Structure formats: C-alpha cells, structure tokens
Amino acid sequence: MAPRNKTQLITYPDSLGGNLKGLQQALEGPLSVAAEGGIHILPPFPSSGDRGFAPLTYDEIDPRFGSWADIERLAQHHDIILDLMINHISRRSVYAQDYMQHGDESPWAELFINIEQSWPGGAITERDRERMFLRREKPYSRYEVGPAKRPTCLWTTFGKEDPSEQLDLNIYSDPAHKLFEKALRRFAETGIKAVRLDAAAYIIKKPGTSCFFVEPDIYDYLGRLRSLADSLGVLLLPEVHARKEQQYGLAQRGYWIYDFILPFAILHALRNATSGALLAYLRDRPVSQFTMLDCHDGIPVKPDLDGVFSSSTAASIANDCVRLGANLSRVLSPEYIDKDGFDVHQIRCSYYSALDCDDDAYIAARAIQFFVPGIPQVYYAGLLAERNRTENLASAADGRTINRVDYTAEDIEQALQRPVVQRLLMLIQFRNTHNAFTGNCDFLDDEPDAVWIRWSAGSDYCELRIRLSTRETLIIHSDDHGNKTLYAP
After folding, report:
1. 144 is catalytic
2. Which of 14, 239, 294, 304 is catalytic?
3. What string of DSSP letters covers 204-248?
4. Which of 188, 246, 265, 401 qualifies as a cystine partner to 392, CB 3.0-4.6 A?
5. Which domain holds residue 132?
6. Active site residue: 198, 259, 343, 463, which one?
7. pLDDT tens digit string along 169-186?
8. Is residue 382 part of a domain?
9. Global confidence as pTM
10. What is the pLDDT of residues 68-113, one digit of tens each?
C-alpha cells in the first residue's frame, strides 16, 4: 500500500486541544487541511518517560489522552500512523517488572539483553564501546534482578537516567515476536494504516560492529516484520537516522523512508541564498520518502548529513541556530565525531526560529518541502509557526522541550489569526488539491540564488519559483479551466 499524496500532521495526543477528543475537535476546523493525508499521533500509550517513547504497554491508550475508541474514531476519517518502539520498552512495564522480580525464571527473561549472557566475555570492553554509535555514555544500565536482587547489566541504548527508563529488547526472542505481533494486530484491528518503527537502526547488537544499522542483519529482520505487517495491510516505516547510503538501502528494498537531509538542505539554501547544494541533493534522492522540516526531536545533522554537507558547513548553520536560541544534542562516540571535532547530532529548535521568525523565509521553506517529491509531514508546532520556547528549558532537563509547546483550543484560535499561519494553511490546501502533483517533477536550472521546481500531469502544471536572496515565493500554475494563474503564498 502507498500513503495518500497529501500532507500529514504530526502531533502528540495532547498537544492540540489537551487530549484525543480535543485533537478531533481541532481537526474539525481550519487545521483539518493539514491532516488530509493522515495523522502521525506520537505515542499515546501509558509510558514512564521520554514523552511516550518508554511505553508500558500497547494494549491501552493512556487515559489522560483518551481510549482506543478515540483512536478508532479518528481513524474513520484520517489515515493514522502510530509508533512501535521496536528497540525498547519501559522498565516499569509488566514484562520488565516480572523479570526484575523473578529473574531467569520469568517468562519474559529472554525479552531483555543481559550483557553477561549475550556478550562474549561477559562484559563490554572499552574497544567495544569505541566501535559503537552511542546515544548515552554507556550502552547499558545496572538493575537488581531476581529474588536475590543480583546486580545485572541490561542493554539500554537511550535514557539520561541511570538506570534508564528504556530497556532494549532482544528482537530475536519469542517474547519479542509475540509482543510485536500482538501490537501490530491491535493496530490493524483499530484501522491504523501505517506504523513507524522507532529507533529501528539500533535493534541489532552484534560483537565487533557499531551496533547501529548492522547490515545485512537489519534488512533480514525488518523483512520478517514486514511480511507480518503486509499480511495485516499495515505499512511499515523504519525510522532511521543514518548516512544516506544506508537510508537508500532501505528504499531500494521497497521501504518508504524519512528524508532527514531535506530540513538542513533547505535551511542552508535560505540562510546562504544559494541553491547549488540543495538542488544537487534533490536530483539524487529516492522519491518514496516522507519529507519534514521539524519534528519532536530536532533538525537532524549527524550522521544524516555525513557525506552530503561538510562539517564546517553544518557547524556554521548549527552555530547560527544556537545564536537564535537553539540547543544541541551531541554525538557521544569518539569514532563518529569528525576529525575537526564537529559532533552535533541534532539542532533542537523550531524551524520558524531557525529562519529568524521571517514569515517569507518560512513560507519559502514550506513551499520547497511541499514541491519536493514525497509525502509532506508538518509537525503541529511548525503548522502554527511556533517560536523557540526557551522559557521551557528552565523547568525541564530535556532540551527538546524548546519545540514541544501544548495548545489549548483558545491558543489554536489565537495562532490561526497570525498571517504566517493563514498563508501556510493556504499553501497546504494548494499542495493537497492541485492535480499536477500526481504527475512528474523536474528541477529546473536557474540562477544560483533561485529554486525552480515544476510538476506536470497532462495539461495540468504548477511551477514553484523562489528567489532565495529576497525569500520571494511565486507559484505559476494551471487552473480548473487550463488557464495560467499566478499565486504568491
């Protein structure tokens, strides 16, 4: 199955209206146009951390957000995407708690990765750690396991806490297979159209490797999971932050992937008024991608941009964003830090702020995103052109809260009065309705500070012309009567 060729909305279950019922009400008004292609609802399950990404179970919806009935109602009118945290689960889940209490006698013991039992020599050496692409200083946490409360090192890819809230899963175990199958079947029964496999690049732990996007093992495992999803009519979307060669390897095997290079490439083009790097990239990418500018984490940098942009170019943009209030997440593994010391993993900020809160620049960025082949996704804060919420950082340890503001119904109404939001909604409407986007795309050569993209389908056409130096956007297109029309969003 293929996703609808219209814009999708990304939102937390409580970020637009307070809960799932509030989300449904918000989508009954002007915001509905952003969800015509579907809604990616970030994890609505009971969770012990990471704003939903440390799930306790997939059997329930967190009652603070609503119920499965609310999800099902949304699915009657929208294609819904949910996350399956294929790499990990909460240490407070019933599976982990049973294992902590009963140790190896627990029916869930095989679900977790005991380093002493799974790693040669019973311990991860310094050299092992140097090879790994780490998201925390060490890839494990120590827990008290079994009736004797024996100190045990379990694999934990993520989490600032020690011990981490997120226990990695032994994906090859029978309990893991049953967990994933049960979740996918529940999703399918509820009418979910697609499932994003969160942190898919980290699922293979293999001695002597980076334990990150381990080939060909990752293809073999994802293929097994895709066979199950296909039988249920569910599209799988592996979420992978990796070099483009690895992303493209997934695309060559028939997966839809995420274009995590595009956000930086557009930002670079607009901030430097030069289109060369952007157009060179656009002519060399698979078309079966979900495009985005912003998300709940940040603007991707390493390893997504490795081999596409130099570290000096990436550092310049990152430093510009920091001056505008952004904060940075870092690469922790020395082997994956550039020789010049560049180590930025993601830029945490709103995309609107990354463009100096310039309305024209922001609309130009969104226009490029919408004209690039793929399925455009719009993060809810980006939909409302949110600024960096640096005040959120004072009360939160997570730098990502800078771009995770929650809106009441009244907040949404106020945001809708802003001209930049109205312009963006009209641009989304154009992207969703013009027939030319069902046809072929060409990137036209022009001056170095311009971007020209043309779509055509039979006699229908639309052409985007952006002057990067002035941030002016013009769309020339056919109307319902075949006449030439100008549209300046």
Report:
1. no
2. 239
3. ---TTS-SSS-TTHHHHHHHHHHHHHHHHT-EEEE-----HHHHH
4. 401
5. 94-168
6. 198
7. 999 999 999 999 999 999
8. no
9. 0.96
10. 999 999 999 999 999 999 999 999 999 999 999 999 999 999 999 9
